[in-house]
Amino acid sequence: MRVAGRVEDIVERGLCTGCGACASLLGNDALGMDLSPDGFMRPRRRRRLKDTEQVTVMQVCTGNRLSGPAPEDAAAPHPIFGPILHLARGHATDPEIRFRSATGGVLTALALYLVESGEVDGILQVGVSSDNPLLNDVSFNTSREQIVASSGSRYGPTAPLRDIMAMLDSGRRFAFIGKPCDIATLRNLARVDARVDRQIPYMLAMFCGGNPSISATYNIVRRFGEDHRDVDEFRYRGHGWPGPTYVRTRQGKEHRQSYDETWFSNLTYELMFRCKICADGTGEHADVVAGDCWVMENGKPSHREAGDGWNMHIARTVRGTQLIEDAVVAGYLHEEPFSVAELEAMHDDHGLKKRSVFWRLTALALTAQPFPDHGALRVVQAGLAASWRERWAAFRGTLARSLKRRNRESPVTSGTFAPDTTTS
Ligand SMILES: Cc1cc2nc3c(=O)[nH]c(=O)nc-3n(C[C@H](O)[C@H](O)[C@H](O)COP(=O)(O)OP(=O)(O)OC[C@H]3O[C@@H](n4cnc5c(N)ncnc54)[C@H](O)[C@@H]3O)c2cc1C
């Protein structure tokens, strides 16, 4: 197995998740975070890195390895969905949160409970950039208003850990909400920096099928016939369940399209290569993870508008289980039973994804490409459960991609993303 050992290789071989931890660890004079020409958030090298700096980053980077949380907190894992200490469907009890959020507002309700009960000083989380409504940024939120404003799914690049060292230096105690890969990075960091476990008592994640290039966002705007410079508000979903993708221009023009029109029609965008070899779409390293609790039609999840949102959520740790229990008792969260069989049927896209990873990694190994050490994520076990058709599709696709160098990304010294300014 070949693991990338330098930031340059992590980025250029398509293994970077864009979390920003490397830039925070080494400082701004060494690495900045910016949109790459491919439209992904990537470290941009500002000077040559020393060998010791490379080692510092590799201990933490999930393009290199995923070491996971301390084992004593983990339950015996489900082969696909990982440790399940508590599983339920539910939603925020506050109707405004439930309406505005991506799904049923479980993550926002838990965040609000943590702040209002004094468990933490604030929440480190992603929201809309204050400079550009098409972009995302990370902020440290301490008030209800800020936390609710950061609800919703931002399917696009962000670097949620770009200031993580400054946050730890500040001595604050906070919860973090992010993608599974962001949490995995924090767990790696916890192994070398004891402040993580002391100061970040709660790590919450969403199910994640992969994060697209920012070109997806710009292409949605172009498809509506608008110039990106005129956009005043942009939402991928929320304000309903799943809620329409929504664009409002400065001139007051509004556009909407359904979830399926956004993600399952002819929208052109690239998913990060790192997401294609991700074995942790269901947030195994988080204390609590939440996903959609889709309405099932003919045994398949339907994405049609279904009124008030429902999440399914899993507590992975004792601490996460206690948090959910406390939030229910305090009246922030409503819960109903949800079974593992329902989870398996509803989120089999994550089953397929996990079963495929081993075969994708095999193709990378055969073509001498590096890939991360996936640690305790049961990649081989899941791979052996794949059908022959699934194995072949995953292997062949990655082999072709690797041979054509389509897993590669622009160098860490290249320029930034330039949006297409033509309207369609
Ligand atoms: C890239 C991406 C892929 C997803 N894939 C799936 C999937 O495959 N299956 C599924 O069931 N659900 C998926 N979701 C999650 C789903 O959209 C909801 O976020 C989830 O159901 C939680 O709902 P909620 O109502 O509790 O969230 P909310 O209460 O609205 O809270 C969402 C939280 O997520 C944070 N957040 C939003 N975007 C990002 C981001 N890009 N990076 C880090 N943090 C972010 C916000 O800060 C907020 O705290 C995905 C979300 C994203 C962003």
Primary descriptors:
binds flavin-adenine dinucleotide; Coenzyme F420 hydrogenase/dehydrogenase, beta subunit C-terminal domain; Aspartate Aminotransferase, domain 2; 424 residues; globular; alpha+beta; eight-stranded mixed beta sheet; three-stranded antiparallel beta sheet
Structural write-up:
- The protein is of the alpha+beta class.
- The protein has 3 domains: 7-67 and 349-403, no CATH class; 82-212 and 271-347, Aspartate Aminotransferase, domain 2; 215-263, no CATH class.
- 34% of the residues lie in helices and 19% in strands.
- It is built from 17 helices and 17 strands.
- It has helices at residues 7-12, 21-26, 51-58, 95-100, 106-116, 144-149, 164-169, 180-192, 195-199, 215-223, 259-263, 273-276, 318-329, 340-346, 348-366, 379-384, 388-403; strands spanning 31-35, 41-45, 77-78, 82-83, 86-92, 122-128, 136-141, 174-178, 202-206, 231-235, 245-249, 254-257, 288-292, 295-297, 300-302, 311-315, 333-337.
- The protein has an 8-stranded mixed beta sheet with strand order 7-6-8-9-13-16-5-17. It has a 3-stranded antiparallel beta sheet with strand order 10-11-12.
- A hairpin with a 2-residue loop joins strand 14 (295-297) and strand 15.
- Helix 15 (348-366) crosses helix 17.
- The longest helix has 19 residues, at 348-366.
- It is globular.
- The mean pLDDT is 95.
- Residues 101-108, 125-127, 136, 150-155, 158, 160, 177-179, 206-209, 211, 290-292, 311 line the site of flavin-adenine dinucleotide.
